[in-house]
Amino acid sequence: MTANIREFPGTSINEQDFDDGKILYNFDKLNGIYAWDTGIGIGSYLASLKNGVLLGSHCKTCRKVVVPPRTICEWCFRPMNEFVPLKDTGIVNTFSLCYVTWDVQRIKDPEIPAVIDIDGASPMHGIMHMLGDVDPQNVKIGMRVQAVWKPANERQGSINDILYFKPIEEK
Amino acid sequence: MTLLNRDPNSPVVWNGELPVTNRYTYGLAGEKFFRTLKDEERILGTHCPHCDQTYVPASIFCERCLAKLDDWVDVGTSGEVNTFTFLHVNLDGSLREKPEIIAFVRFGDGGLIHRLGEINPDQVQIGIMVQAVFKPASDRIGSILDIDYFKPV
């Protein structure tokens, strides 16, 4: 629609005008510092990520294993029964090839965010992470992948302790 | 077993920072207003002949009749204190030794909110005339803070 508009109303300015001092402006940086209570479930998840383990939680009533772990079952609303360590392998549930970064920079090699169903969790239960070490054209739904971890001494209890997931070489 | 206890090794909070920045341009009227303030030490307003209103800071449209305004008027650098307040606490919550005096100084039918200086707090009254004290030209950046403070005439 906008392609048909030759000239937009208003006064157009560009980056060069700011650099040349043609335009007065006020630059401001808002205070965006926050602290988010991790709670019992995610707190334990982050603590075990530091040890190189993906943690889930199990509801005996519904026979569900969810990841990341929650303390309350989403189906029966009863307290979950136990934490269960899961494997760091899984199946690509869905993925995207992103040629634009979060701050709107164009990139040549795409970032590949994917939802990965973790082995040991109930079917269709997984986490979102990045795929790496793979040709973007070869990424397929259903592909088996494995986590690539940071070295143990660099882990800080964050989801970024997993660098990315890479395809498992089929033998 | 229910999951009631926090893993002793778990982080209590997740700390983060949202990268929020903004760049505000002043618009057509604001650009001229601040440019004149910076380069010529003058305060400009715009006058609407239909409504007989003088807007300070300058506005490009009359907010009463919505007419476009191009009658720019110099309103001088001294105005009357319309109202004021004393601030005893800094932004970070610490107590100030001397209060900061913030006043609304009337120009035309509008005015500017700014700080008062060179004045004893108990001398501040509604109705006193104050005059703008500008920063040295080299320190001015095209902001309302190019006026350092207002002092009594």
Q: What brief labels describe this structure?
A:
heterodimer, A: mainly beta, 3-stranded antiparallel beta sheet, B: 153 residues, 5-stranded antiparallel beta sheet, 9% helix
Question: What would your notes on this structure say?
Answer:
The complex is a heterodimer of chains A (171) and B (153). Chain A is mostly beta strands and 171 residues long. Chain A has one domain (39-167). Chain A is 10% helix and 38% strand. Chain A is built from two helices and eleven strands, in the order αββαβββββββββ. In chain A, the strands form two sheets. In chain A, strands 6, 7, 8, 9, 10 and 11 form a six-stranded antiparallel β-sheet that branches. In chain A, β7 and β8 form a beta hairpin. Chain B has 153 residues and is mainly beta. Helices cover 9% and strands 43% of the residues of chain B. Chain B has one helix and ten strands; from the N terminus they run ββαββββββββ. Chain B has a five-stranded antiparallel β-sheet, with no helix packed on it. The longest helix of chain B has 14 residues, at 27-40. The A-B interface holds A 11, 13, 18, 23-30, 32-44, 46-48, 50, 57, 69, 71, 79-83, 157 and B 1-7, 9-26, 28, 30-31, 34-35, 38, 141-143. β1 (25-29) of chain A pairs antiparallel with β2 (21-25) of chain B.
Q: Which radius of gyration of chain B do the C-alpha atoms yield?
A: 22 Å
Q: How far is it from the N-terminal to the C-terminal residue of chain B, by CA?
A: 77 Å
Proportion in β-strands of chain B: 35-45%
Average of pLDDT of chain B: 92
- Strands ordered across the widest β-sheet of chain B: 8-7-6-9-10
**Multimeric status of the protein:** heterodimer
Order of helices and strands of chain A: HEEHEEEEEEEEE
Q: What is the count of DSSP helices of chain B, taking H or I runs of 4+ residues?
A: 1
Shape of chain A: elongated
Shape of chain B: extended
Helix fraction bin of chain B:
under 10%
Q: Greatest contact pair?
A: A-B, 37 and 34 residues
Report on the biggest sheet of chain B.
5 strands, antiparallel
Overall strand count of chain B: 10
Q: Helix/strand/pairing class of chain B, anyone?
A: mainly beta
Summed over residues and divided by their number, the pLDDT of chain A gives a mean of 92
Assign a percent range to the helix content of chain A. Answer: under 10%
Radius of gyration of chain A, in Å, reads 22 Å
* Number of DSSP-assigned strands of chain A: 11
